[in-house]
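Appendix B. One record, verbatim.
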Amino acid sequence: MSKPTNQRKVLVTAALPYSNGRLHVGHIAGAYLPSDIYVRYLRLAGAEVRFVCGSDDHGVAIMLTAEKEGKTPAEVAKFYGEKQQRDLLGLGISLDIYSSTSRNSYHKQASQEFFLKVYERGFFEKKSTRQFYDASREMFLPDRFVKGTCTYCETLEQNGDQCENCGKMLDVDSLRDARSVMSGNPATVKETVHWFLDVTSFEQAVSNWVDTAVLRDHTRNYVRGLLGMGLVKRSMTRDISWGIPLPIQDPDAAGKVLYVWFDAPIGYISNTAELCQQLDGDSERYNDWWRSPETEIYHFIGEDNTIFHCVIWIAMLQAESTFQLPRGVIVNNFLNIQFPDRESEKISKSRGTAVWIEDYLSEGGSSDVLRYYLTSIAPERARTVYKPDDLVQRNNSELANILGNFVHRIVSFTIKYEGPQIPAIDPAKLTQTDHNFLALFETCHITLTKQLEEFAFKQGLEGLMDFARACNKYADEKAPWATRKTDLETTRVTLALCLQAIHFLGVCFAPFLPETSAKILRLMNQDPESTRWMDALTPPPAGALLNEPQILFQKIETEKK
């Protein structure tokens, strides 16, 4: 079947996680769940979508883990990359591809060609630079191989590239009391040669992009603040052994690799090429997604990646000149965590303050319950806090009591007293209460569509749950369990409209709670795979068969949480 000539074409990427550890709830809330909600909505709305991600395998972080675990960097990247993929799949993250910057056969060439294009256009400057050095290990210490105190905000234990607290970029002059992570010894400073990208040449271009791109207000203001302080030339090479070799004939290039933050975003492009080979049989079809002005490109990231995606990556694309700039970068803030009887704190692997996706799923946690909770507390505009007790409370009081109970009691009641089909009704029997209830459908759908288009997922979910509350209120007011004894026509109207509402909820919850949505739609004998976004406003026909309901959400006992 040929695609419609006016079909919207959207490429969505989720941040490439370092393949040196497992995923936790903060990762999911930051990039993977919001991007999945958006993609699921786009597919329902009929857009042609490619949803791309994969592990970020190169650089210091993977080397450190490899040394700690007694493995090679390649072994570490494969091990954790596969774990991450299973976690995302377990949460229903509907990626079209989850690839790898070390195992993707297109990535090395794509990265080197990108570098060479920028190099040939004169935007790289080779220069001698001072870098931290560990004399006992006879090695330079880029980025995460060195830790110290941020000069700007005095935060301890910061890496040698960026302060996690204030967001400022760090180097040999702004990281105080530096020490080697490899040996624990104080770091000295030694000269080496690197290739610097002239980001300053693209300050105006980045500024213009920021003015027109789809960004949340806090992101736009943050990036404008960075631009106001002026950009600097950034080193895009490193003195390490694990990475993409520098592709130029220069004696000083021997043993140097591309900076991981240069090759990582190019992974979006190489992963698209790999996906096109899988789906279209032609890797070159990636050009349709990256070089066509008809394609909308959106990146979903966490706040710590803002500088690289909204400044460095935009400058890189401008310097290379043949790829489309992203239409938008959707940034979520950090998610903190608060366990019972403890203060809110940063999610931390080393301190054990994390809820790991692998553990959550292996212990029987519901993917939809976690999706619901993380969206309800989504850190879209400010940092928020994950509270295990709050997840239990929302599951029990909102998902089970409001949504699950409404669906179960209406379908069960209908089957018991009217039979396993949607009742036929006389439209003339509708009261003002019924008409008011039906008016909510279109209002909710229009508002929810607008919120999804504007990446306001938290607000959209809240509005949809408000509609579910209105459904319960309508059912309670109409009381079909009472009217069935005296007025069957009114009872049938009530049940038919409630079943229409259940169908509406089944469609509209699909981006947020895919498993639950599918269960609801199958109750109505509808195929979730063929359902479209506008179907929410088309009531299932009278006489359509109903299936016996199942419990959508089990209540969580406090002692088992």
